[in-house]
């Protein structure tokens, strides 16, 4: 599990048909934060990768071994927020988030290749799996050769290509002595700055001190940035005093018990389940 580091210094009766529910869930995502850009819509995975990329170099830190699993956690949360998957209902036998299985709620296409591929995997499984197991399967971290088919391949490159198509990244070839590598430098710094500012403000000027009152996508992104070990990138540009406040509040938020917080806010169970999975790993 990643750690927060300090800066070193001296359901109803009016239920809609599934298709309408899916469309409504997708619309809700667009309206959830009125301050977000109306021109460019990013998935949680795209936002996490953007936060992790070095602007000029166009690649993530070679020392970051957390972002791959963090991106898979982002896929599960994105699907849940879009109304495609959910955790199985709470029972006396299965109370803990990590004991509850991920259930397919709708297999309606999302329009995102990675999300739709994951949906097909979840639909194809003979028995439902937990959040933690799905993160491992999608990452390819399984000893069962019969389940390697569920691994999502080339995730970072596919997400980067999406960002290139959206005009946020560009594509270059760089030589690293013994090999050439495709890199994706940031070409639209405004979008990344908007994203960083949004997260900084959520911990400073717009701090509500209650995750139930937070915008779900902002809460999800903070959890995923932490799980992917890129949260430090978000606050690095802050003055020292604001940096300390933001990091301390982030730590307090991420140290909350997911089992206690999950029942409080509607629609946030998957977010807390993903956090619980990373806290355990």
Which helices and strands, and how do they pair?
Blueprint (H helix, E strand, L loop, with lengths): L17 H14 L12 H9 L14 H15 L3 E3 L14 E3 L8 H12 L6 H9 L15 H11 L6 E5 L2 E5 L5 H15 L12 H12 L3 H5 L4 H15 L3 H4 L7 H12 L1
Antiparallel strand pairs: 1-2, 3-4
- The count of helical stretches stands at 12
* Principal-axes shape call: globular
Helix content: 40-55%
| Largest beta-sheet characterization | 2 strands, antiparallel
Protein architecture, described:
With 281 residues, the chain is mainly alpha-helical. Strands 1-2 form a two-stranded antiparallel sheet. It has a two-stranded antiparallel ribbon with strand order 3-4. Helix 2 packs across helix 6. The protein is built from 12 helices and 4 strands; from the N terminus they run αααββαααββαααααα. About 5% of the residues have low confidence.
Give short descriptive properties of this protein:
281 residues; mainly alpha; two-stranded antiparallel ribbon; two-stranded antiparallel sheet; 12 helices; 4 strands
In brief:
With 281 residues, the protein is mainly α. The chain has helices at residues 18-31, 44-52, 67-81, 113-124, 131-139, 155-165, 189-203, 216-227, 231-235, 240-254, 258-261, 269-280; strands spanning 85-87, 102-104, 172-176, 179-183.
